[in-house]
Amino acid sequence: MDAEQWNKEQARVDDVRSQLKARIARDEPLVSELKSQVVGIRSEFWDDVTVNLAESDDRIETAVSMKQQAEVLSERERSHRALRSGLQKMRRLLPAPYFGRIDLVEDGTDGTPEPVYVGVASFLADDGETFLVYDWRTPIASLYYDYGPGAVRYETPGGEITGEMTLKRQFSIREGRIRSMFDTGMTIGDELLQDVLSRTSSSQMQAIVGTIQQDQNAIIRNDRERLLIVQGAAGSGKTSAALQRVAYLLYKHRSRISAEQMVLFSPNPMFSSYISSVLPELGEENIKQTTFQDYLELRLGKRWRLEDAAEQLEAVLAGPEADEEIRLRAAAIRSKSSVRFLERIEAFASGLLRSGMRFKGFRLRGRVVIARGQLEERFYGMDASIRLPNRIELLKEWLLEELERLETEERDADWVREEIEYLDNEQYRKIHKSLSRQRRAGADEDESVLEERLLRAEVARRTFRPLRRLAESLAWVDAAGLYKDLFRGEHAADAEEERWSEIGSRTLSALEEGRLLHEDAAPLLYLTELVQGFRMNTAIRYVIVDEAQDFSAFQFHFLKRLFPMAKITALGDFNQAIFAHSTELAASAWLQRLYGPEQTKTIVLRRSYRSTRPIVEFTRSLLPDGSGIEPFDRPGELPVLVRAGGPEERDRLLAADLLELEASAATAAVICRTEAESRTAWERLRRMPGLEKLKLVTKDTVKFETGLLVIPAYLAKGVEFDAVLLYDASADAYGEERLRKLFYTACTRAMHVLRMYAPGEPSPFFADAAPGSYREANPARS
Predict the structure, then answer these.
(1) What does the DSSP 8-state code read for residue 570?
(2) How far is the C-alpha of 467 from the C-alpha of 95, rounded, in Å?
(3) Distance, CA of 132 to CA of 114 (rounded, Å)
(4) Beta bridge partners of 605
(5) Are 356 and 531 in contact, with CB atoms under 8 Å apart?
(6) Higher pLDDT, 212 or 176
(7) Residues 669, 749: contact at Cβ < 8 Å?
(8) Under a CB-based contact definition with an 8 Å cutoff, are residues 240 and 706 in contact?
(9) Cα 721–543–251 angle (5° rounding)?
(10) pLDDT band at 418 (very low <50, low <70, confident <90, very high)
(11) Phi and psi dihedrals of 393, rounded to 5?
(12) Cα R_g (the chain), whole angstroms
């Protein structure tokens, strides 16, 4: 790039920044003034409203006064929000107004190229018409990501625009100075991407819209299919693209969709913290974030002691694969997470229309007032064409009517007279207020008789209130009993799954103890909803599922029913499918059938950007089909296998490396196989000089922080660290084939440095690694 071009571009940066500074200086006091007005109107709202309810005309005048004051407040709030939002965008643009430029000659024009500068937000000149910077989400900006110089086309609300791109230029601007600038073709500035990725990681994921690749842009701008499946290699930018997709959709549909109408299912609370800054960096509010476990706790936590996914994995990793308990538990998880089990539950629910329905009776003061048999008789006495949830709804209506009738009958019972003695003062005052009203209304009933009648009615109403709540909540439907039926009697005998009898026996034992294993939670809830009717949230329009390979068939079907109006984006990497129930996103026929092939699109991301080339070449060679993963050409040091003479020497070597890395890396993680191993490692290492502040990350950790930390591999999924130190890479820790993906997941968390410590014979996975893809260090023998 010659000096004249450089100086010309720098002059434009200076000019845009000058206009930004002027606009910021103009708007800051306006935002402050509007905020003061809003606060003032709120605090003085009732002082400025004349309230008079004495006469009809006065009430109308009061309503008009309140409406006018509310409209003034609403107008000021809207103005403040709009001006504050614009100010925030300008402040974000000030250090680096844009990152790209394209020159476009539209077909049908005079042939003069129009320069289009692309940044994280739009910025117009003072005339209100000339774009100095185009938001990266605008239709014209899509050319920057999808094309190189040559013929181009893009869609606008007014139709398709065609033309020719004569220039595509990439910038790296920091604090108003151009650090690098180059003209580029199809790939979005590998030089810039290398520069970004060579820096240490921040405490939160960075939103790098300037380095979005073409395949990521296809994810971001897809708004057609109901289900978008993204199968991506570790470090391929799946989550970053998904969050940029959210920002794009909020921008595109800003007139009809808000952040409240989107929800992200993340793997754990710490991951939610890790990505929390991305959308604000892109100029949007954060969307709702939750975990599927949170939803299970909300729906089932009051009735059961729920096991979560981490506890389930810990149980499976607690012993060798040959252990009989481990083998049985793994078989149970696979069976209960399968499409076959889902289909069995759906067939079972359909059969309940004919027989087998379970109910709980209603008891009052130790006696049955509505028996199970009555409920069954009415249920099966309905028209055979009525659907299961509709029958339950009709039965609930009958129950409420029956309880009202029984309440009226019980008022004359002897026990009611006895309960009157226990009414508190507040209840007596309530009765006497009612007594006074009826006296004023001209009731001719004797006062003592009227008082006793009212008191009896109050006692009966109070006693029947819990029964009415039970009826309303459908607690009389014995969903747990129905689920148990799937594991006993004819249903257990007909099952084709391996070891189903043993699985059923263990399942029933856990349920009897009030424990709900993780693999039982979604199926039980699914059966409950099939019987009672699905609770739906029709407000949500977009659902993002991260680490989707860890979702079972039940969970995906549940999301489809729970959010019937939503489009789902499922992001995952089957190579990191460390749970027994994991889903193979790209190949699962049942997932493709969820909405049908015509409403489903699959995008595969093969290129890994997170790690250096040596780390990617090592980790991909661990996988049978890892050759499909493409490393980004960023140099770095080879991964290191450190052979130690035993656990004590391993700890000493690892501690020394941690202290050395502390000065150069924002985050260095000691990754362990399980939480139990993590706690042991943390307790051993923090006794070393200089490591007293070493942090331990557990499933209860809600905030991601930089520094030196110890973390289980399954909690590290989706997160990146400058340096990863694998605590135990020996055959004792990773000697079984079932642990290959866990080993791979742990290693792929490293951006720049990967060191693996073996206090014994190394894992057999090293024998599968490509020759020369790692080096050995053997301090014990040197």
Answers:
(1) E
(2) 64
(3) 12
(4) 232
(5) no
(6) 176
(7) yes
(8) no
(9) 85
(10) confident
(11) -65, -45
(12) 33
Q: Which residue type is seen at 770?
A: A
In the three-class reduction of DSSP (H, G, I as helix; E, B as strand; rest coil), residue 228 is classed as strand
262 DSSP β-pair partners? 542
Cα(145)–Cα(647) distance, integer angstroms: 50
> What is the distance between the alpha carbons of residues 301 and 279, in angstroms, rounded to a whole number?
31
The H-assigned helical ranges of 686-759 are 740-747
What is the token pair recorded at 518? 């993780």
The answer to whether residue 123 scores a pLDDT higher than 90 is yes
Question: Which residues neighbour 7 within 8 Å (Cβ) at sequence distance 6 or greater?
Answer: none
DSSP conformational letter for 476: T
Residue 742, classed as helix, strand or coil, is: helix
Tell me how far apart the alpha carbons of residues 414 and 44 are, in angstroms, rounded to a whole number: 57
Q: What DSSP designation does 753 have?
A: E
Distances from the Cα of 493 to the Cα of 225, 481, 500, 509, angstroms: 41, 18, 9, 18
Residue keyed to tokens 């990863």: 724
**Would you state the structure tokens that stand for residue 435, as one six-digit string?**
């007594």
d(CA 754, CA 234): 15
The type of residue at 96 is: A
How far are the Cα atoms of 15, 190, 206 from residue 606, in angstroms, in the given order?
40, 16, 20
Q: Max CA-CA distance within the chain?
A: 108
Interatomic CA distance for residues 140 and 117, integer angstroms = 10
Residue 469 near residue 328, CB atoms below 8 Å = no
Q: Stretch 773-781: mean pLDDT, rounded?
A: 80
Q: Is 464 in contact with 346 (CB distance < 8 Å)?
A: no
* Alpha-carbon span 453 to 430, nearest angstrom: 13
Residue 449 is encoded by which pair of tokens?
């008789």
The two counts, helices (H) then strands (E), for the chain are: 28, 26
CB-CB contact of 275 with 302 (8 Å): no
For residues 173 and 10, what is the distance between their CA atoms, to the nearest angstrom? 10
Give the DSSP letter of residue 200.
Answer: P
SS percent in the chain: helix, strand, coil, step 5: 50, 15, 35
Mean local confidence (pLDDT), 164-190: 83
* Rounded Cα distance, 614 and 638, in Å: 5
The pLDDT score that the predictor gives to residue 432 is 67
DSSP character at residue 245: H
Rounded Cα gap, residues 646 and 514, in angstroms: 43
Residue 187 pLDDT exceeds 60:
no
Residue 83 in tokens: 């001006």
Q: What angle do CA 343, 349, 355 make, to 5 degrees?
A: 135
Helix axes 324-336, 518-532, angle to 10 degrees: 30
* Residue 308 reports pLDDT greater than 60: yes
pLDDT at 782: 45
Q: What are phi and psi of 105, to 5 degrees?
A: -110, 110
d(CA 116, CA 100): 8
Phi/psi of residue 620, each to 5°?
Answer: -70, -25
The 3-class SS string of 99-116 reads: CEEEEEEECCCCCCCEEE
Average pLDDT value for residue range 305-310: 93
- DSSP state at residue 156: E
* pLDDT of 499 higher than 70: yes
Q: CA-based angle 699:705:707, to the nearest 5?
A: 115
- pTM, two decimals, is 0.84
The first and second tokens of residue 582, run together, are 């994991």
H helices present in 44-113, as ranges: 56-93
Structure tokens at 59: 């009430």
